[in-house]
Amino acid sequence: MNKREVTFSNLIKLIKDRRPFSIIGIVFIFSSIFILLPSILFMTKSFVEAYQKYDFKKIEQNGTEKNAKITDLRPINNVTINGEHPLKISYEFLDNGVIKSDKFQTMDLEKTNEMKIGSEIKIKTFENQTKIQNLEPFIFPFYLFYILPFIFFVLGSVFSAIGLIPALRDYNLYKNGLVKEGTIIALTPNSGLPITNIGQSILINYYYLAANGQKIFGKSKTTDFSIMTEKKAEDKIKLFVSENDETKSCMVPKLEAMKNNWKI
Asked: Transmembrane stretches, by residue range (predicted)?
């Protein structure tokens, strides 16, 4: 059979008819990929200092031990773990005759109690990265920020599946479905979301006969409310039925059939 001419606007209308789920799904996925994720990447690149990205395992394994002198000790007050703040230690050391400075964060507060500005400490240095000997580095778990866009993406995918998959199925039926006659069982109004009424539609329950004469029951949504006055239970309606799977069907949309000159 020849494919019917179906426009992109028909797909857009089908997606709109699946509101609010389809729209929420698109908004959540768009927000996670194009707003939240870039914002978090920008934030981590802008606010994470170089020493917070060091590979401390490599430094410990391959580093050269050197002496250093503490130049500053400062608690990180905007981070609290079990009621305590990580300590940021700034220090200077001599490397090939050049005085260099670096920083290190730790939660080993018992080991740092005796430290003060001017204290001598042991550090390891490797490929322009350093760490203080015998102290565990504190690395803020920035990966936690990525949970938010992940949650948005998962929720968006779920909402999209609820809204977009049926819309795409009906779009395919518009193009390729066989025209069959069905019988209305019931017409049920759906009031949509409270106050806004977004998602208002009519649910049509119907049945039709398969090629072997067996009854197949189906349902279809429409936003053409004229059907409530033009049709009633036991009236006949036109359906699109999948040629490959007779259980897949949808009602022939009257307005789209007229606009696209389907001559059904």
From this structure: 21-43, 143-165
pLDDT in tens, 151-191: 999 999 999 888 888 999 999 999 999 999 999 999 999 87
| Domains of the chain, start order | 8-19+158-259 (2.40.50), 55-136 (2.40.50)
CA dihedral sign of residues 169, 174, 179, 182: positive
pLDDT of residue 1: 56
User: 208-216: which pairs have CB atoms within 8 A and are 24 or more residues apart?
Assistant: 208/180, 208/181, 208/182, 208/183, 208/239, 208/241, 208/249, 209/180, 210/246, 211/246, 216/246, 216/247, 216/249
CB count within 10 Å of CB 131 equals 24
Alpha helices, H only, the chain: 8-17, 21-31, 37-47, 56-62, 109-112, 147-176, 227-230, 254-259
With beta carbons less than 8 A apart as the criterion, state whether 131 and 54 touch: yes
Spatial separation of the C-alpha atoms in residues 171 and 211, rounded to whole Å: 23
